[in-house]
Amino acid sequence: MNRSMFRRLRGDMGPLEGQLVDAYAVGAVSRRTFLVRGSVLGLSATTLASVLAACGSDAEVVAPAGTEPSGTTGGTEPSGTTAGTEPSATDAPAAGAIKQGGTLRVASQRPGSPLDPVAMDNIGSYTPVVASLEYLCGKGEGAALAPMLAESWSPNDDGSVWTFVLRQGVKWHDGKDFVASDVVGSMDRLAPTNLAAYIDPGSTVAVDDFTIEVTLKNPDGQFPYQVSPYNPQSVVTPPDYEAGTLFDQQPNGTSAFKLESYDVATGANYVRFDEWWGGKAYLDGLEIIFSDDNATQINGLLGDQVDAVIQFAVSDADALFNSPDITVDSIQGAGHRQIWFNVREGTFSGEKGAKIREAIALGLDRQALIDTVLQGRGDIGNDHPIAPVYEFWDSTQPQRERDVERAMALLEEADAAGLAITMHAVDLQEIALLAEVVQSQLKDIGMDITLNVESTSTFYDRWCLVYDSTVEPAGCDGGAEFGIVDYGNRGTPDVYLVKAYATGEWNSAHYLSEEFNAAVKEYQASLDLETRKEAIKSVQEIANRDIPYVIPYFYNTLTAYRNTVTGIQHTGLGHYFLGQAGFTS
Amino acid sequence: MSDLDPITNDSPAAAAPMAVVTSTPTPGTGERKVARKENWRLIRRRPSFIIGMTIVVVWVVCALFSSTIVPYHPLDFRTGLNMSPTGSHPFGTDKGGRDVLSRVIAGARDVLKIAPLAAVLGVIGGVMLGMLMGYLRGWFDTIASRIVESFLALPVVLLGLLAITTFGNSNWVVIGVVATLFIPVVARTVRAAVLAETELDYVASARLRGESTMFIMFREILPNVIGPIVVEMTVRIGYAVFTVATLSFLGAGPPPPSPDWGSQVSDNFNSIVSGYWWSTFFPAMAIASLVIAVNLIADAVQSVMEGS
Amino acid sequence: MGKFLLKRLASMVVTLWLLATIVFLLAAKGLPGDIGRKVLGPTANAGDVAAFNTRIGTDKPLFVQYFRSLKNLVTFDFGESFQTGNSVLDLLIPALGRSAKLAILAFVITIPISIAAGIFAARRQDKLADRVVVNAGLASSSVPEFVTASVLLAVFAVQWKVGSVYANVPEGTSLFGQLEFLLLPAMAMVVSYFGYIARMTRAGVITALHADYTRTATLKGLGSGQVMRRHVLRNAMAPTITVISVQIGYLFGGIIGVEKVFNYPGLGTMMLNAVGKKDIPVLQTAVLMVGIIYMVSTLLADLLIAMLNPRVRLDRAT
Fold this sequence. Notes:
By secondary structure, chain A is an alpha+beta fold. Chain A is built from 16 helices and 25 strands. The longest helix of chain A has 18 residues, at 529-546. Chain A is globular. In chain C, α5 packs antiparallel against α6 (128-142) and α6 crosses α8. At the B-C interface, α5, α6, α10, α11 and α12 of B face α1, α6, α7, α8 and α10 of C.
């Protein structure tokens, strides 16, 4: 270790950054974790590299994009065909290979809601919006963040005030300059809804033309995730936007592509914006083609009608996996399926209910589920929402394995041998198949499950319709005591922990545990990785012990593109950042 | 699909091909019985009837004894995914690794439960409505005709989708929806047939005798329009299978994990591009075989009735 | 004739009103869920949902909403889509155009083929050729059209790269160039409808061949070609024309399967999405469009039949 260099670096840092560097220096965190955490705290690539160097991580000083295709696991087809698979916005891709010109055609889900950037709620709507609008923090490698509209950011000592230094020379598509007051306006529009838990209108102030300061309601060591692609609604919107302004009716943005035309029936067209801060993009334009089905999007790629499919489910995609002309990227994520039990009343409540819950958890063969339903593309779940992709995931927790005998004994003890019950599920991606396999596996422990699989539109209506806010804890459960619902990928598990487990509004299980909530509070307040790891450990243990939900797996998000396309940066949340993308010659 | 609904024959041409063939007027009850027996004998002799009936019987046997004749459990997930047809899986396996042959056999049960029931209910409803319209005429006919017409102008699948979204998708709702979709079509056919009948002498004389409306409608007219109704019934069974498949495709079919043929087709047709044709082909062929069988029977019935 | 047309038009208006009412009731009363919630999504907060409903007027009593929707229809205004906030007509007129293009192409191919096949089979009644035509037609129309469409797509567009996976024609494509995009979905429809129309034609021709006037004409010594043209076909076409006219209505609104497989944003797709989002203005207008097409095409069919066969009395046809 280079002591003097280390001391010099360490001396310039705030306490949060300092703790991280110390933890890395003594080997308490891995190199990968250090890079991720460092990026969240706003340490620059140079600083990170210097620390790595000072600590003697000699071989791979600055991780070039692609050496650690972080998320790429589980896929039969390794994604790392080119080094530029996931370049951060500032990295120049391997030049020379990419030719100037061409229009990239991308198949995407049809928007399911108006293109109101603040209120949009589905990836179909994200895609056309984020093609033009950008975030303060971009996506780096794996779960890390990278500079986008903010060049750097840093917290104060306790993580309650965050300062973002904005990029200079950024222009809006309408020709105006991008300045700090634009971000203040944008944050104020987010404050009453999307960021209500974090800030109020007025919490964001412009220090100068290119610096803003955000004062949080509660300290949060991970706040930059809230202004990054992991919180899709947090795009920086133009100063003339008001609450309810629709992007397609007033198109503008800061990205490399400017909206030309938009039609919800067919798709959207973009042309290159030559004054983009990242330089001149390779592509002349971008065409997004909407469709309602996974299969149609896949067929489009197979039939040369599009060059990329932004996101697709594993079912019916074998033709893509088998095609030599197509690259499939598997992005490891935290998205999962949640099998809920109503623990407040009915079959699954009380002591007997707890036994039945455990019996079901023990009755599932999770690896078989992953193999059948996801064709192996996912991480095994242990009945808590902390995915292995998070750097603070506690890997020491024992995995719950299938035990048919024990499960049957538990059912017997609960006077529920041969239990017959209806399971509610939404017909989305692989969930219907998951429900069928669960039904079939639980037959082995003597359970007789009837399925009630509903289309997405009716399911989600009913899901929150039966919302009795007078009985605590309330929650959306569609009036069913047993069901399956989907949770998308997030950069941090806060949404799952708060909305699904604590008193949050999606608490289908109506689960309430002071012990659990205390652990979540501790996790959220934790500013350094050690305490966070410690807190998450008890979160995992309590959830795994109480089993308000069975979480069988975390699925990988899939994206696919023609081999002639390179430089696509994607997030697993319906974003494509295409400033560096192009066709190879 | 039920788009292919035949006959809307109160148009001026009224000469709809398989309908409105009225048998000889003024038949007595006794003569009718004899004629019916004779017809039945003739029908049984026709090769199309024999072939059609054989296919139907095969499917009925499959439905009744599915649990003993299936090689694997139709809901069993534990074999390889998307295996092409081989000795141990003659029809291959589907995307969940389930044996397609077993599912096709077991699916006969769902299909034979839903389709004939929906067809019977739809035809009964349609016959009632059509007879009332054709016999009563006047304001009732005028109003009912407009309602029937507006249902016919409504895209069939859309109506089904709306209804299933509203009431949920249990087997009974699917049966009810398909039956309801058939009522206007059948009613139109029957109305046209009844209209033609009411102008015949035997109806006038029954009226003169002072018979009640109900008696005239059901005892006098109904037996004379039974031909097109029987044809309509057999045709409807075929369309019911088809309609259920289409509803499944739109996500409004019978609830999973039903191995209903239509659901199998709509669950698996997206794998065709990956080269996995068998998980769609075999259930689709099962549907086609049943539709053809029922139509062969219908043809036999129709040609005998026309011939007599 | 004039009286007939007037009567027909009057009943068309009544039917359209009934259609609008049925759709409104089914959609507004039947479809579960709150419109604001559906449009804004499960994660939107309650205040925004309520504000949305107030803005588009779905918080008003049902009859107020009903009369407003009727007013929109009567004034040809049609209102705005709940889902996107854009004008309903801006969304549906292009969709109608796309549906029309595909339906017309499908019919231009289907009609001659299936009528020829029907006549061919009828003249060889109960022979092998007849059986083949009838049962092939039956088999092809008993395979759901989305399966036919998928097979055509997989074999032609994906494997052989002939034709297009997405049927939507890019702007500025020449008339002939459009065929590349539309031919496969049209063929899927042809396969589905061929058998049906062929069988109708066959049945009509057989009836006409056995009719007295045909026998008389043959006895008078007319050649078989002349008998066929002047007597048989003229009479046999009526049921076929009726069936075709009914199918035109269905083709515009009922080919959701083919539209979905080929990602073709026609009227069917628009209606399907509108059901999902409870988008009543879009749904009502689309259904009325299909209804009008259905009624106009059946009216034209009746007129055509009357022209072919003067014995048909139009005034009995309502």
